[in-house]
């Protein structure tokens, strides 16, 4: 899944911070679909961090395949873990390569994020002081305002009861037009 370049930078750097804070080395392979972001990330990490602690490998399928063939990537010393953020299909490939070396893997494979709207929900009411956006405004901004829905926590579908669904759809249409 392609996310906006800034999101890719943030999603890449967050686990790096945790890993080096815990005293681990990092081999980072950023998303190939955003080469400018990957290049910037590599440049900044090489400039400001010890290359013995953090390495960045740019590239696509060929480079990833070569990385997965390197036994050194899977040294199973205490604390060795492989983290993967991406699709289920590639996650399976990563998991299979790690299993050959008994290396633990942490996979974040995205997913689907439902929104549950109960029939007693006031769809347009702004609550609290100062008034926060209504339920519909929060759903809409979560889906379309930030990253155009390309975040792993972006709402993907709405669950509601059959009788309430037409009201939800009409209210969403009105709110989207206003948005």
- Count of individual beta strands: 6
Q: Percent of residues in helical segments?
A: 40-55%
Which strands sit side by side, in order, in the main sheet? 1-2
Write down the overall mean pLDDT: 81
- CATH 2nd-level architecture of the largest domain: 3-Layer(aba) Sandwich
Total of DSSP H or I helical runs spanning 4+ residues? 6
- % residues in beta strands: 5-15%
Say what the CATH topology of the largest domain is.
Aldehyde Dehydrogenase, Chain A, domain 1
What is the terminal separation in angstroms? 26 Å
Pfam families: Aldedh (PF00171)
Active site: 108
Family: Belongs to the aldehyde dehydrogenase family.
Domain Aldehyde dehydrogenase: 10-178
Please describe the topology of this protein.
Layout: H1 5-21, E1 26-28, H2 35-48, E2 54-56, H3 61-68, E3 82-85, H4 88-99, E4 105-108, E5 114-116, H5 135-145, E6 157-159, H6 165-178
Parallel strand pairs: 1-2, 3-4, 5-6
Helix pairs in contact: 1-2
Give an account of the 3D structure.
This protein has two domains: about 5-110, Aldehyde Dehydrogenase, Chain A, domain 1 (3-Layer(aba) Sandwich); about 115-179, no CATH class. About 40% of the residues lie in helices and about 10% in strands. The chain contains six helices and six strands; from the N terminus they run αβαβαβαββαβα. It has helices spanning about 5-20, 35-50, 60-70, 90-100, 135-145, 165-179, and strands spanning about 25-30, 55, 80-85, 105-110, 115, 155-160. α5 (about 135-145) links the parallel β5 and β6 (about 155-160). α1 packs parallel to α2.
